[in-house]
Amino acid sequence: GPVFEEQPSSLIYPEGLIEGKITLSCQARASPPATYSWKLNGTLMELGLSRYSLVAGSLVISNPDIQDTGSYQCLAKNPCGTIISRAANLKFGYLHDFPPNSRTSQTVYEGAGTFQTCQPPPHYPALSYRWYFNEFPNFIRKDDGRWFVSQVTGNLYLAKAELNDTGSYFCFTTINLDISTKSTFNKGSLLTVLPDGNPRRSAPSIKLRFPAENYGLTGHTAQLECFAYGNPVPKLRWRKVDGLMPSKVGFSTQSPTLTLPELSFDDEGIYECEAYNSEGSDTYHGRIIVHAQPEWLQVMCDSEVEISSELNWNCIAAGKPRPAVRWIRNGLFLITQVTQS
């Protein structure tokens, strides 16, 4: 019977790419050789018509567009049986332009904190954000502790305004896909800093807060953002309230962004951000909850049995939340009932 040597992988393709081509790979070892078919969202596709064609077992989509979005599966078949591949999701990435309307101006007194909203245009997937001041490419430096650019909302935060901060600010967004990159920026907004002969000193006030509950997957990276206004400019430190801070966070414990790479269940817990200066401090905390994709702990193997005898196949999977298990025979679900592993 067929055995997969190559299965399709999920892909994000740039929307509007002219005369493009997508190849979803599929290759199986079989004797006699396998024949191939494909399903889109669970329905068999008509191949060899219009823009869809087979090259060996791989599916080629010519001039792809948004209507091709969906979940694709390859079926490999010979007289011994049929196997069905994992699902590969095809999605289309895009970044529209900012609207042409002007942005609202803002006025703030010297020594006070403020923020500028980015309000990014429609896009998929997530963007990266930078801001520049007055003219391109005068980007705001990441190592200036007075400033912070949120990579969640794109907003620009200023802990303590100074007179030379007066000027126009532009949100610069970038989308990175496998085969292309696109950037766009807004019309910019004017910030005016008014002089104050004796800028008021102030204790920190946390203005950028991460959600109360944050979900992450094992093996992936979690990031929490925290930033405060204050005069003098507040410093930040992170701690884990209900245990030891993981050593893998490194120097991010003193940064506006706490980064936890390679998440594990040990990383679950409550994390606190503290902003402090000579005038006082402010704190905020939230929880990280770690989930895990299904993985097999025990799988079936090939078996030879006598006719009319009994065969038991056990499959045990782990995951959080607890995964459900379904059985497939020759590419079709054997039973409709869903069982817990």
From TrEMBL:
Q: Which UniProt keywords apply?
A: Immunoglobulin domain
| Matching Pfam families | Ig_3 (PF13927)
The answer, when asked if Signal is one of the entry's keywords, is no
* Domain Ig-like span(s) in chain numbering: 2-91, 99-186, 204-289, 294-341
Q: What is this protein called?
A: Ig-like domain-containing protein
Query: Organism source for this protein?
Result: Ataeniobius toweri
The root-end lineage is: Eukaryota, Metazoa, Chordata, Craniata, Vertebrata
